[in-house]
Structure prediction request, 258 residues.
Amino acid sequence: QLSVGADIYVVGNVVCRGNPLMEAILDRVLHYMSGPAWLSSYILRDRKVIAVAGTHGKTSTSSLLAHLLDCDGLAPGFLIGGVPDNFGISARLGAGDWFVIEADEYDTAFFDKRAKFVHYKPMLAVLNNLEFDHADIYADLAAIRWQFHQLLRIVPAGGQVIINADDENLPAVLADGCWSPVARFSVRDKSADVTVLPADDDHKIRVISNNCDAVVAWAQQGPHNRSNTAAALLAASAAGVPVVRSAPNLASFKGVAR
Prediction:
């Protein structure tokens, strides 16, 4: 692999010291960087990034959000940890300004122990939920919360933090410091910026926002899917697609192939 004469060696977080190629790169002082740093420098640099973070729901929410933006003609780029059935691919550059990225809190590389998502410099940050996870690298919930705080530190004042109003741990993240406007979504509280409730028909949901109160077709079941849907609708709204325009496009979402 050294013989290709690469300009940059992109190092994933599965690589550790002792890997023969990595040891050779270090010995020869070749140029290397982490995957998230490469994304930031070469893919996301001139884009408006929507980072979808949270302990769970990132893949589904990112896939749905990319679909909603695409339906409105915004041609977003995306990088998702699954294959959205509407696109048939897990990543594309896109032709529009927006780029949707599944923003993982796992660490970046053996030489950079920050969460991956701090590299993405989002205009919009979606916080789906916060629970203890990744016990191999984080000691407790507080350690993960600190990483989420770092994410909020880099959202600009002209951007937005989109947060799950139903999650008991996320208020503490905001309390640690937030310098951007905050919008909230919920599956219970009708006073949230976007609320998604069950409808009488199991294949429909009720979507409520300041410009929409509609029952629409939706094939995904359960409160977790309603929460992901509310997050995607609110993020799409922050990107310029009103909920009243996005809600009908939920019916054409096909789901995600893992």
